[in-house]
Amino acid sequence: MRLTIITAVRDEAHNLVDWIAHHRALGATDFLIFTNDCADGTEALLDALAPAGVTHIHNEIPEGRTPQWSALKQARAHPLLKDADWVAVLDCDEYVNLRSPLNSFAGLIAACDADAIVLPWRLFGHSGHARRSDLSPLRAYTKAIPEDALYPALARFFKTLYRPAAFREPGVHRPKARKGDSPRWSNGSGQPLPPDFRAQQQRIMLWGAPMATDLVQLNHYSLRSAEDFIIKRSRGLPNHTDKEVGLTYWVERNFNSVEDKTILRHADATEAEATRLRALPQVADIEAIARTHHARRFETLLKNPDLARLYGRLILAENSVPPPESLARELVRIYAAAQTKGES
């Protein structure tokens, strides 16, 4: 079985080895990775990782398009997508977390009678890390939002593992179906999703229903440490280049309410694979240079008074707390009503 992961990155050389290693350990065979405007050695690192199934493409971004959507448009016609049995579009801060006893993508697929499997997000906070940790994300970031939290609604977003033969093209959160087709979808517990979900192709969250993660959840380390966040802010987002990465972004994602170490059952396999990747020619050296690059970049950014102030505020905002269910539902209702009124 060939399983391809597609992503678009910029200046992520200090994060990519762990991420690729984790998903290779679960059975991913190919990585189609698009880059743009890198200054930290990301492109050289990806080229050095070619023996590990990594295909690196420089992302030519048309005016008015975002890096991620440009990458997906190019991916549609790429041979890796055509040859893949299964595909996932993931960011390099998203780590698939299979539930026991599953240890591979093949096991997850076998447990779900579906053409597409929802990978439900779980938001992980900075876990108290002001500065970047030397540990892998699996070990460094173990504090998360409560599984049943309803607010913010983005806590119920998902990504998708899917059969490309059953869909027209990839999307950021879910693939696009062909007109008239009705591919089979399952949730993260292997249960079929209803026809209305299949028909609503713009739907990218499962809000209001109980979390279904008996088989899989997607650990989303969107912040990492406060240091990492300042670097992320300077880099920008791959799919919303106009969106500010500031205190609001942090507060909506920095949940350290409960401990979730379930992904650590994969840690030994992930770290063994990371060791193999770092043994490839140039990989460890490029990664080390990238870490130094980002450490120096952080120190430079802190010379800006506004960023120094933001860094302090990130530390002060050490833990967001989701509201109780009744208030969460009311907040979502208010926002939905305001959005509808604004669009009318």
UniProtKB/TrEMBL annotation:
Keyword Isomerase recorded: no
Transmembrane segments: none
Major subcellular location class: membrane
Keywords in alphabetical order: Membrane, Transferase, Transmembrane, Transmembrane helix
Gene Ontology MF terms: glycosyltransferase activity
Topology relative to the membrane: Single-pass membrane protein
Protein name: Glycosyltransferase family 2 protein
